[in-house]
Amino acid sequence: MAYDEGLAHRLGESLGDLPDLSTKKMFGSLVFLWRGNMLVGVLGSDLIARVGPEAQADALAQPGARVFDFTGRPMNGWVVVGGEAISEDEALEDWIARCREFVEALPPK
Length: 109
Hints:
This protein is 29% helix and 28% strand. The protein is an alpha+beta fold. The model has no long low-confidence stretch (mean pLDDT 95).
């Protein structure tokens, strides 16, 4: 499955000011790493969001969010947000902020 290049561009624009930001293609998706830790990604037209285990229940209660089970096993601390739920820049920025809050507390790799 190819990833949505438009969403990838929007993420790159929003995250461009972060130091130590990199991207990596993985399993047909594109992920953004901050200080070596996965932060967000694009899978098809959906956003992969790393919100952390403690914020996962709240994240799943948001419109368009669902469990991330790419491998057939749910990944704790991760959600997938449908593309329609992040079509507005404000909604995308809210998700990025959730992810940054969690990943900022992780030690660099």
